[in-house]
Amino acid sequence: MLAPLPTLPTEVLSQKRPVIDPYGPMSSNGLDKTLAGQAICAGLAGIFQVYSGGIALDCVKTRLQAGKNLPQSLWGVTLQNVTPSQLSLKYQSVRGSGALTTRVKMLMRSNLYAGHLITAMGRFPYLFLNLGTYQQADTLLTHRRGFHAQKSTWEEMFCIFAAAAVSSISITATECPKVLDQIGDPKAPRNTISGVVKKHGFIRLFQGYDATLCREFLFGVALLGSPALSRFLAEEFVQPYRDTHILASFLDGKELLAVSLGMGMCTGFLTNGPDQLKTNIQRGLFKHIGEAIAHQHSNAGISALYGRAAVIRGLYVGHGVLSLNFARHKVEEFIQKF
Q1: How many domains does the chain have?
Q2: Which pLDDT score, from 0 to 100, does residue 3 have?
Q3: Cα gap 81→37, rounded to integer Å
Q4: DSSP category for residue 34
Q5: Are 91 and 230 in a shared domain?
Q6: What is the pTM of this model?
Q7: How far apart are the first and last CA of the chain?
Q8: Over the stretch 279-330, which tens digit does the pLDDT of each residue have?
Q9: Which of 15, 208, 209, 294 has its CA 20 to 30 A from that of 174?
Q10: pLDDT tens for residues 27-67?
Q11: Residue 284 CA to chain centroid, in angstroms?
């Protein structure tokens, strides 16, 4: 159990070290502060997030949302009434390989990286639209209220909603073939945007936009306070007590990391509801979010949206926040050299 916080003298509390703004200037040429520079940094960081294990967690999450159990989602078993253990024993007896070798081969064949290419390719347009729309909305509101007036919470919400509304068009289109790849036969040809349009029609590509918008808006609102919260944590807890309290000492210099990870995992769990509805819409089960909600409510219930899939999504978003912050920092350091 943690010791109670001691009371420090006023002169100690006033000696606060400056808090480094993680989004402050880094590059002498200012490229990383332009819209294109921000999109490049975030896009490359997003690609790193995909190939550092993010797409595998996303694939398991999508399969769980589609109704498969955890062993089927992880090992990619598509046969009914066949467990991964039964399949492993069968492969061992037929091929004479060991249990570990067989499991590794099964994991490689499970296609956990399904949809990786279109996801990586879709990072830049999604982030460019998101950042660009937010910037334009913020500029519009700044001119309207004056440069010296403080932005209100409602204005910030409007900027986030505008960014989510525009960028959700891009991410809905790229996630449709990705979802079909993740829940489909690993041996089937890879789905593409043009393939979905030819097979199902142009409208099918954007079915699930409403659920995507709900997910992206909630995610943006939930993460809105992470930089401010990390600064508050540093100034009001870590700095005054880092020499006397074990938790403050541990968090010293890790405020943004701790806040981002905690909020990332929490928001990942909470946004699984609209994300799972989006998955079922993109599978072709429903036309829009109203149908999906009505079916969910009358069958398994809304609470069923927050089971194992929500836990995996929490891990996925938490991993995404950490890897994106790490990769973006490295890209900005690279830009700083030029």
Answers
A1: 2
A2: 45
A3: 51
A4: S
A5: no
A6: 0.80
A7: 49
A8: 999 999 999 999 999 999 999 899 999 999 999 999 998 888 777 767 766 7
A9: 294
A10: 444 555 566 777 777 778 888 889 999 999 999 999 999 98
A11: 23
Same domain membership, residue 64 and residue 209: yes
Residues with Cβ within 8 Å of residue 4, at least 6 apart in sequence: none
Q: What is the spatial distance between Cα 216 and Cα 199, in angstroms, rounded to a whole number?
A: 27
Contact 126, 174 (CB under 8 A): yes
The tokens of 316 are what?
Answer: 């996925």
Q: Please enumerate in sequence order all residues whose Cβ is within 8 A of that of 250, keeping only pairs 6 or more positions apart, or say none.
A: none
CA distance 122 to 263: 24
* 41 lies in the same domain as 94: no
The tokens describing 249, both together, are: 């000492």
The Cα 315–Cα 299 span in angstroms is 27
| Secondary structure letter of residue 189 according to DSSP | P
- Give φ, ψ of 278 to 5 degrees: -60, -45
Which residue, chain included where needed, has tokens 């995909």?
A: 50
Q: Say if residue 169 is in the same domain as residue 207.
A: yes
How many CB atoms are located within 10 Å of the residue 262 CB?
14
C-alpha–C-alpha distance, residues 16 and 238, integer Å: 10
How far apart (Å, rounded) are the C-alpha atoms in residues 84 and 202?
Answer: 37
Residues 236 and 88 in one domain: no
Give the residue from 282, 278, 265 showing the smallest Cα distance to 305.
278
91 within domain boundaries: yes
Task: Clarify whether residues 202 and 307 are in a common domain.
Answer: yes
| Residue listed under structure tokens 């900027």 | 159
Domain, as residue range, for 267: 27-76+111-336
Domain contains 2: no
